[in-house]
Design goal:
8 strands, 3 helices, 23% helix, three-stranded antiparallel β-sheet, single chain
């Protein structure tokens, strides 16, 4: 009886693990996925989608990553993608006439299993307004089915 239980547990674990890796790279091979994404962002490969400085009439501003979140992995109409949210905040030098807080930009990143940023999309949503439920991306209450080719056409563009 004990041997049967051991055989069953081995078989059950094999089914569970097999289901987890059938859709792409195993998690053990992707442990450094966030690092790979950050390296691409820091390298400035995507223009404004990087930490940078600007000079605006003598005022120096810096854009820095203030939030970087892994939202989840989803099956999309073009294959599996890992979704990240990145927020860049702009520093604001002291100006007596300034009345607004520092501003920034928010992006959704679509990343392949090997860590390549396949595409990105600017969004007005804050991280608290974005979540994943399976293959559905919810942005400010709007549900986007990532398995729909029409929905993914808004996100997928060559970079």
């Amino acid at each position: 009886m004990r041997n049967l239980l051991i055989i069953f547990l081995c078989f059950y674990a094999g089914i569970s693990f097999g289901g987890a890796i059938e859709d792409g790279e195993p998690l053990a091979d992707n442990f450094d996925l966030p690092l790979k994404v950050m390296q691409q962002l820091s390298a400035g490969k995507f223009g404004g989608l990087r930490p940078h400085k600007i000079d605006d009439q003598g005022w120096i501003y810096s854009y820095f990553i203030s939030e970087f979140l892994f939202l989840g992995r989803a099956k999309t109409s073009i294959g599996f993608r890992n979704l990240f949210y990145v927020n860049y905040t702009r520093t604001a030098p002291y100006r007596p006439e300034a009345r607004n807080p520092a501003r920034g930009f928010h992006y959704l990143l679509f990343v392949t299993d090997n860590g390549r940023i396949a595409s990105f999309q600017k969004t007005d949503a804050f991280s608290s307004e974005i979540k994943m439920e399976g293959s559905t991306l919810i942005v400010e209450g709007e549900k986007i089915d990532l398995q729909s080719k029409e929905a993914m056409s808004h996100f997928e563009r060559p970079n």
